[in-house]
């Protein structure tokens, strides 16, 4: 794959502890600069910003989309892409996750799979992810298409289901202030008031399914020889693990291809890295750790001017013309020292995100006259510039007095030799495209409670059920979608499950599946999962499980040994239908609440592409 194309970087300034923007500046920018990558940056301004943006984005101008956030923003990206007419192709644009949220399940899964260091926590993973973005190659990753009884079609890259894990995740939101310990606290509460769900769960076992569950976790993880060149690390031969993993056939041997995309081409990755990622990784960890926690930071160099492509983006995300760069962040703001001539930057964390009080997070200066405050769709806003200590680049700081549904586009451009890069503000007010759907769809309980921070996904792709088909629409694009689904063997909720599916109707404490090894940094849910293994790892906790075993199960999830707890059953599947019979409850996809009801999930083997080294 060409490394010459532009990257699109999406940053959620509100993700996790609110350090996504700092992570970008401290860990990603230096790596991108060193590799001469050209990139555009968009800082999301509100829930569903990314979801809306990627639906109209001119994808061919980008070689990859990077997300500096938690898993929630990537969920928006995939589902926005899945909403497009060219959804099948769009979903295969290479994506890169740089962990900046509280969950970071995908980033952790990839780090585990590639045996990358995680000792430094999310900072270490972030640095590796930055290297993936700058120097990586797209690798096939499974997606899961979920149809809901309310007519939604959702794309999942991580996990879904109902039961104790979803309950703890969502219900403990109210204790968010406690950080990660909210999960432990709520877990105890949930164990005390153990909830059982009446569910019919139907599934199609993956051809490489092996039971019992003891087989599903590796006793030890073999050393992954990092001294190998990446050329030698042929991705067509996934890392071998003891136990079942070694005998797992390639997904392509098991499952029908979903598209014309050439999986083989993806697998034969052509790595020719001269970049010393070992050195970079080793050198950078400590400094990054401390850096990110600093409120005052120095800015890394930007790409040299001859590698910079300056463009503007309209609200739909299509390229307009040559202009300048803007930075806007709810939480992290730049403050330039007096004038741009000083070439010094002080970066500070602003307490308030959206400057509702009109506080300008970056100071203005002469250079304002040089900036072009482009109005993507609406208001002009105060704009400031900042420059790096070495004067290599400047960025506008766009203070938003109304961040409601405005979008700010930051272009990374630089004019380093001048000590001043042209920057621009693209400020858009985007009307929610799916307002109608949003207003007619049920709003999840979680989103109601956290509406200022979280997105309501209940409005996401709607394919209102006619009779037998979920996806009836008049236009040709939808016909095409339906045809693709049929080709892939996707099942519809309105139809009975195929004869070769197994059906269990019972009481369960949990029915939950993951298609990645980790569903968060510390939950090692499916130890044998790899990004393209062509299956979902369905975990069922039987209703007969004792409280002690449930506690044991939850407590051993960080090590992956939970799979052997009595009452727990893990089954690799290619399709699963979950039909709850209780009137209420919580159901999640990739950590986001969806309307409670029946869902059917089918694997889309290797449909997405993820940047890895
Ligand atoms: N500027 C913003 N302000 C508020 N919410 C936003 C903004 N940008 C994105 N979001 C929403 O924040 C949600 C959470 O984002 P993300 O997953 O990146 O962070 P997180 O802290 O890891 O989330 P989680 O609480 O799910 O772990 C996303 O679903 C997205 O809709």
UniProtKB/TrEMBL annotation:
Residues annotated as domain DAGKc: 2-150
Entry's Gene Ontology molecular function annotations: ATP binding; lipid kinase activity
A Pfam cross-reference name: DAGK_cat
Keyword entries, A-Z: ATP-binding, Kinase, Nucleotide-binding, Transferase
Chain segments carrying region Disordered: 229-332, 373-493
Record's GO cellular component terms: cytoplasm; membrane
A GO BP entry: sphingosine biosynthetic process
Domain of life (superkingdom): Eukaryota
Biased composition (Basic and acidic residues): 274-288, 414-438, 470-483
Gene3D superfamilies: 2.60.200.40, Probable inorganic polyphosphate/atp-NAD kinase, domain 1 (3.40.50.10330)
Listed Low complexity bias regions: 289-298
Compositionally biased tracts (Polar residues): 229-238, 313-332, 373-413, 484-493
Coiled coil regions in record: none
PANTHER family to which the protein is assigned, alphabetical: LD11247P-RELATED, SPHINGOSINE KINASE
Name of the protein: Sphingosine kinase 2-like
